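Hi support team,

I'm filing this because I wasn't sure whether my run with adenosine-5'-triphosphate finished correctly. The job status page said complete, but I'd like someone to confirm that the output block is well-formed before I use it downstream. Pasting the exact inputs I used:
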Amino acid sequence: MKTAEIRQKFLEFFESKKHTAVDSAPIVVKNDPTLMFTNAGMNQFKDIFLGNEPAANERVVDTQKCLRVSGKHNDLEEVGVDTYHHTMFEMLGNWSFGDYYKKEAIEWAWELLTEVYKIDKSRIYVTVFEGDKDDHLEFDQEAFDVWKNLIAEERIISANKKDNFWEMGDVGPCGPCSEIHVDMRSDSARASSNGRDLVNHDHPEVIEIWNLVFMELQRKSDGKLIPLKSKHIDTGMGLERLAMVLQGKQSTYDTDIFVKLIDRIEKETGKKYGFKSSKSDIAIRVMADHVRAVAFAIADGQMPSNTGAGYVIRRILRRAIRYAYSFLDVREPILYKLAEELIALMGGFFEELNKNSNLIIQVVKEEEESFLKTLARGIDLIEKISFETKGDSISGQVVFELYDTYGFPADLTGLILSEKGKSFDEKEFEAELEKQKNRSRKAANQETGDWIIVNDDQGVTSFVGYDSLQTDLKIMRYRK
Ligand code: ATP
Ligand code: MG
Ligand code: MG
Ligand code: MG
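And here is everything the job wrote out:
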């Protein structure tokens, strides 16, 4: 089953259970000081959970574009190194706003996975929240009892707050959850060890696919929990991981969307994918992953820039360029070609990609051209400094200079250094950065806006430029 069909089946299944399908919210968040990017399906419904806003529909289904590169849920360091975390991914979700609760949520999840998608029941494990003393929370007996009617007891695992209590951030709506994991290992591997012991242990093939969150609490800034006015259901299933399971693959990168991107990388670079942990494989995965994050961010109006969310996007892009440069010998822009491929693959469902295709391709290409110019000199300098420095720690001042002069994001320098067993003085770097910020604050009393309008009502893309002083252009297009 192709990814597009898997997504469609999810939406249709919940529509048949009287859910209304809604669009994904933009991947970039602009009106929430606690969040920079959408990191879960629930973000756009936060105010409904908190009781600040009424729900237009009590039951909703959607697929949400998510980006986990900052804040509480930051997966950037894992991406490419492992084979199942992405920066940008799609989170399929069904929602109950004060309507059905644990019983239906669990039973429908089971029905969808085993009857519609026909996942082998003997590969499934589920978890329930074991409770937590500090927060005065009890074992989730209710969820356990529902599961007990569906699945053998030895396949139900109690798990702790880290894995089974979902929180959006330091504050906000939260609640215990119950998760579904699938053991995708070969029969012989399954015969030699129990999948149960590998659940929640970051095994690449005993993989968490779906989180059913029982939203009933709110974390306040003093750390205390208070009950929400109503109880809600918030579920999130990673589409890429579901595709991995349904397509019988060992990694999300072996599924249809990524295979196409990787084919194109192989074609453009002449390098082969398939050595799993080699640097070149990591580089290929990083490129295939990062191009999605960047393309979706640009489509939603977030240009790469030197501040805020724009800088996060620029860093992701530069990270991909550097991997391609160092491990695949790439010397010419290439990611923009991947962006083209991606738009063809995903633009059918996410029309914002199609509508902004020229903009995406143009911006990615320009970013690549400009960073490739300084990359070689920057890398040489890091080599030299690292060679000349006694001990394992490089001064933060030097890392700041690389950032300031060559556009080397500190995390990129950190990554290159870590490959040499070295690190840098982060405090010193932060201090230099702060000094620079103060200098520019004095120089300009206007903040640089990195937020542009990407589409007007006629669907015409107006490229107003990035890194420009456009403080009044803060509005972006929401999908109709
Ligand atoms: P993991 O433990 O694998 O890091 P998580 O517990 O952080 O996942 P949740 O916050 O529970 O993930 O999100 C719900 C679902 O979204 C997960 O069950 C998974 O299928 C998917 N998901 C989460 N993070 C990623 C990611 N970085 N890339 C791809 N899919 C993800
Ligand atoms: Mg995680
Ligand atoms: Mg988890
Ligand atoms: Mg989880």
